[in-house]
């Protein structure tokens, strides 16, 4: 319970110290240390065995060539798995911090929301976390909207995919400008695609199977153990809708209340980008009908939408819906998501059962 109290303290104080750099670094340090020293959490034993196996000089591509390479470096540096894990957590969180800082100075409330959800489950799933941390960091290059920027983004997606192949999904983010110019058409097409996939699952199976190993495809596409419940499907579908509505409202409000041409290009691009990717994320719902695991593809969208609210705070002073209301809604929904879908993580990490 002491650990839970510490996390609650970080969340509350973070909402009041929005631009305090030292507190922000404290948040990161606490996340790194507390997750790094936790050995009872899911996957610790399995990844520790993989780490030791690679350290013995074996090539182990089953967890991704990129992860094998990182484990190899950790072993060469003489790190234990616990030390290696903390180094990876620190690197990933600093990459995420770099992106947050790039778009806004109001950082700590974003971290408070992130600590509520989905930080705990992200950091426990260490390999997935490192993959999405690279993706979030790569978005800075994508939004430069240059040929070089797109190239760097694609290369980083490939690197992230070598650490966890679910990162390949985010290659679709390169189509953000096409989507934002054709919002209604895109939503219609994705909705129709969603319906077709529900009616004929084999279409989606053939697409998804191109990105995973045979073992993973068998586990996620043909295994009925982890199919989402109706309530989980409804919640995360509504979350996707919430992201879309929020991004649309924020983009429209900023445009109406400011001289649009005077807003920096990177922030204008972000307003367009987040709406586009929230719309593209509709396809995650169809993927999740095979396994609840696919809903984790939505997790980076939480922190990306938190950044969107920060931009809203900077440019809209008297919006119909205040930033505080949106932040409160996200905090409540994060608590619901954590308690309702991550009960095992709560038990493993905090030792509580809800």
TrEMBL record:
Residue ranges of the TM segments: 28-47, 84-103, 115-138, 150-175, 187-209, 229-250, 270-294, 323-341
InterPro entries linked to this entry: EpsG-like
Domain of life where this protein originates: Bacteria
Coiled-coil boundaries: none
Record key words, sorted: Membrane, Transmembrane, Transmembrane helix
Full protein name: EpsG family protein
Source organism (scientific name): Ligilactobacillus murinus
